[in-house]
Amino acid sequence: MHAASQRQATRVTDFIWLSEGMSNSYLVVTSAGRVVINTGLGFEALVHKGNFDAVDRGPIRYILLTQAHVDHVGGVEVFRQPGTEIVAQDNNRICQDDDARIHPFRAAHSAPFFPRTVGKAEKNRHVQARPRPTLTFTDHHEFDLGGMRFELIATPGGETIDSMCVWLPQYRTAFVGNVFSALFGHFPNLVTLRGDRYRFALPFIESVNRVLALEPELLLTGHFAPIRGADLIRSELTRVRDAVQYVHDATVQGMNDGKDVFTLMREIELPPHLEVGQGYGCVSWSVRAIWEGYAGWFHQRSTTELYPSLPNDVYPDIVELAGGAAAVAQRAQQRLAAGAPVAAIHLAEMALAAEPRSRPALEAYLAAHQRLLDERGGINFWETGWLRYQIERTRQTLAGVGAELPSA
């Protein structure tokens, strides 16, 4: 996922063209005019439009928005022409209003993962559209243009509750945006580290079933290349659907059996026949999302959950009792040497709560994150991004302490 920079659109079929960016934008050319599906971030839209105008300069009759995220709707004003119909599912406005309401929070929490894109987007906020659709629908909407039938189908189990699929029945082609999350064939992202509402397992399963029922032969997603072949699409979507059902059911069973959420996060794994990638979504994180989606944030583990007090508030007391930050940092290094980097991070955070510029604690913190990156980097996009962000921040802090950095 990267900001749009390609110099020309990619031909998908005789009448469909793709321009890649932070999310994909598509052009459908008909004899009666053009249809644009998603428009990218505002600052990307001129690139997308230039790519599409090089293919065809017919009037833009429709802009179809498969979801309300800013990287789908941001370029609407660049593409809009007099008479252009902007179509979205009914909940589009609710989702856009969410984005607008907590924009500073989302920008700040997205920056560790997309620093360059967020930086550029913030500098170009004046070109970012927050469009109001001219036509919305609840469950299903159809129209014809130039002899081509477009069917719009609500899939509210996707990344947003306004997600929709654009279906071209004559060509067995489905534009699905991020209904299945950002990586096709991988476990969906039921909770985002960048900050968004929970996505729910059962609506996701229902949305997958809606697309499966279409029996598409070509799937055009929000990111990366087209997926071709009815058998491949069917088998991958079926496995992802069944994997989510398995995790959902195992979590609910564990809740009813009296197991705590952290036990279930450790225990629940996909069986071999349902193994899917976890490059974007993560099974253990989804277990917690499912749990809290049903039960909320109070896990009944401690009275302290009810009050605005963090465990960190007593870390300095523990560090003092343990003999100081250096002693706790030394134990963090021991736990790291024993193969427990997460435990080492806990201990280093205790030491740093007492002495924020403790070099031994910072070194332990850095080394533990580096160990996790070495062991797990590249498995999951979000985990990898966060580990790299923490490593860089800690290196900068260490540099400010004024001593030589430890070797990587």
Task: Please tell me the CATH architecture of the largest domain by its name.
Answer: 4-Layer Sandwich
Secondary structure: helix percent = 40-55%
Q: Trace the largest sheet across and list its strands.
A: 1-2-3-4-5-6-7
User: How is the CATH topology of the largest domain named?
Assistant: Metallo-beta-lactamase, Chain A
The CATH fourth-level homologous superfamily of the largest domain: Ribonuclease Z/Hydroxyacylglutathione hydrolase-like
| N-C termini distance | 28 Å
Number of extended strands: 13
User: Which spans have pLDDT < 50 for at least 5 consecutive residues?
Assistant: 404-408
Shape: globular
CATH class of the largest domain: Alpha Beta
Decide which structural class fits the backbone: alpha/beta
Number of helices: 15
* Domain tally: 2
Major sheet, described briefly? 7 strands, mixed
Run of helices and strands: EEEEHEHHEHHHEEEEEHEEHHHHHHHH
Strand percent estimate: 5-15%
Mean pLDDT: 95
Compute the CA-based radius of gyration.
24 Å
Q: How would you characterize the overall build of this protein?
A:
- There is one protein chain.
- The chain has 2 domains: about 10-240, 4-Layer Sandwich (Metallo-beta-lactamase, Chain A); about 310-400, Alpha Horseshoe (Serine Threonine Protein Phosphatase 5, Tetratricopeptide repeat).
- The chain is built from 15 helices and 13 strands.
- About 45% of the residues lie in helices and about 15% in strands.
- It is globular, with a radius of gyration of 24 Å.
- Mean pLDDT is about 95; it is low at about 405-408.
- The protein has helices at about 45-55, 70-75, 75-80, 90-100, 105-110, 115-125, 200-215, 230-255, 260-265, 285-295, 315-320, 325-335, 340-355, 360-375, 380-400; strands at about 10, 15-20, 25-30, 35, 60-65, 85-90, 135, 140-145, 150-155, 165-170, 175, 220, 225-230.
- It is an alpha/beta fold and about 400 residues long.
- Strands 1-2-3-4-5-6-7 form a 7-stranded mixed sheet, with helices on one face.
- The longest helix has 27 residues, at about 230-255.
